[in-house]
Every structure is written in structure tokens, then in C-alpha cells.
From TrEMBL:
It is a multi-pass membrane protein. It comes from Hymenochirus boettgeri. One of its GO terms (molecular function) is G protein-coupled receptor activity. The keyword Repeat does not apply. The lineage of its organism: Eukaryota, Metazoa, Chordata, Craniata, Vertebrata. The chain crosses the membrane at residues 22-44, 56-74, 94-116, 137-164, 199-221. It is found in: Cell membrane. This is Olfactory receptor. GO terms for cellular component: plasma membrane.
Length: 245
């Protein structure tokens, strides 16, 4: 009973009595607020030449991801809420999965890169532009996108080799690779790959961020205007809480 012919069903809201139209409006408002806010920040960074430095370009990079990341899942979720049609083809699942992993893993690396940038700016201010030279800047800006793309393509390729044993119900808000692995047959090797990917793009990135901020705090404890300097990290810290929370 191994087949690819069936559609999957996204069942996140089937067991709830909540008003689907109200949920649709809620997600619509949140989605467009994020789109408009991040688009405004991107425009400001590109238009103001005073903001053309690694810190703000990294922030701009993050804003682009904060537009793309929810766009991989929320539009389809809103369609399900509005039409109550929970079906999703295997191809649609793969497409959603590849973009979700791509933007998610890219954002994880960008967040750790921003932590490193803050560490250099606060702990080595006089050597900031020497350390953040053009080569390192290009690596920090482009590297996350390349690694994120390679990760998503590789995992999606492995996902296309999964076999499904008649179970097509996905109890999640969207179709992702982890959900597909749970309803597949004999996916132990694939689940091990997901675990390794979670370590590399999850735990390892968190450790890099923690190391950067531990060093920042150690330096700030010896400085007079520590609160003012720490405030420059506030947007990054808020994003970290939202992303990993």
C-alpha cells in the first residue's frame, strides 16, 4: 500500500471550534503588518547612505527573510481557513517544504552572523572595519543564503524518496519535511538526517549566538554606558526570542 497518488490534508484547525474567518483575518493582519514593516525597513536602509554598513545590511537581510519565511506557509494556511479545503498535493508539499527549510535555515545563520557582528562592533570597535573586511562581509551576507539553499535542496531530494503507507493527514499548520517523515514508512535514515540538520542549523547556531553575547556581556560589565550600548542589540535579541521561542 505504498503510493504517491493521494493528496495530503492539513488538519491543524479541524479539531477546533474557532471561527475560521476570524482566524483568517487574524493571520491576514499579522502577515501584512510583517510585510509592510519589513518592507519599510528595507527601503530605509537602501535609501539612507548613512545606514550602508554591515550591521544595517545584515538587518536588511533579516528583514528580507522575515518577508519570505512566512510567505512560504501563511498564504496557503489562509486559503485553507477561507475555503475549508485542507487538501494539498505532494508537489505543493515539496515546494512548501523546500522554501520553508531554505528560509528557516538561512535565517538561523543570519541571526548568528548578526550576533558575531555585534560582538565585533562592541568588543573590538576600533578594528571593526578591519575585521569586517570586504571578503568576510561578502561571506556573511551571501554564505547563509547558499548554505540554506543547499540544505533545503538536499533535504527535499531525500524527502522525494520517502514512501507513504496510506497515512496522508498532517497535524500541523503547513506541510513541512518533518511532518512528511512522521507519516512515511521506513524513514529512520531520513529522520537521522533531520536530527543532524537540526543540530547544525539549530543548536550549533544558538551556541554561536550565546558565545557572542557572553563575550559582549563580559565587555559591557567593564563599560560605563553599558545600557546604551546594549540597546543597539535590542532588535536582534527580540528577533532571537521570536524565532527560537
Amino acid at each position: 500500500n505504498l503510493t504517491y497518488s493521494e493528496d495530503f490534508h492539513i488538519l491543524a484547525f479541524t479539531d477546533t471550534s474557532a471561527n475560521h474567518r476570524l482566524l483568517f483575518l487574524f493571520f491576514l493582519l499579522i502577515y501584512w503588518a510583517g510585510i509592510l514593516g519589513n518592507s519599510l525597513l528595507i527601503t530605509l536602509v537602501f535609501k539612507d547612505s548613512h545606514l550602508h554598513n554591515p550591521m544595517y545590511f545584515l538587518l536588511c537581510n533579516l528583514s528580507i527573510l522575515d518577508v519570505c519565511f512566512p510567505s512560504a506557509t501563511i498564504p496557503k494556511l489562509m486559503e485553507i481557513l477561507l475555503t475549508k479545503n485542507t487538501s494539498m498535493s505532494l508537489l505543493q508539499c515539496y515546494i512548501q517544504g523546500v522554501f520553508y527549510v531554505f528560509f528557516g535555515s538561512t535565517e538561523a545563520i543570519v541571526l548568528s552572523s548578526m550576533a558575531y557582528d555585534r560582538y565585533v562592533a562592541i568588543c573590538h570597535p576600533l578594528q571593526y572595519y578591519l575585521i569586517m573586511n570586504e571578503k568576510k562581509y561578502a561571506l556573511i551576507m551571501g554564505g547563509p543564503w547558499i548554505l540554506g539553499l543547499l540544505n533545503s535542496v538536499y533535504l527535499t531530494f531525500l524527502c522525494t524518496r520517502l514512501l507513504f503507507c496510506g497515512e496522508y493527514d498532517i497535524h500541523s499548520f503547513f506541510c513541512n519535511i518533518k511532518s512528511l517523515s512522521k507519516i512515511s514508512c521506513g524513514s529512520a535514515v531520513f529522520q537521522n538526517m533531520i536530527f543532524a540538520e537540526s543540530l547544525m542549523f539549530g543548536l550549533f547556531q544558538v551556541l554561536l549566538i550565546l558565545i557572542s553575547y557572553i563575550k559582549i556581556v563580559m565587555v559591557l560589565l567593564r563599560m560605563k554606558y553599558r545600557l546604551k550600548i546594549l540597546s543597539s542589540c535590542s532588535s536582534h535579541l527580540i528577533t532571537l526570542i521570536i524565532f527560537y521561542g
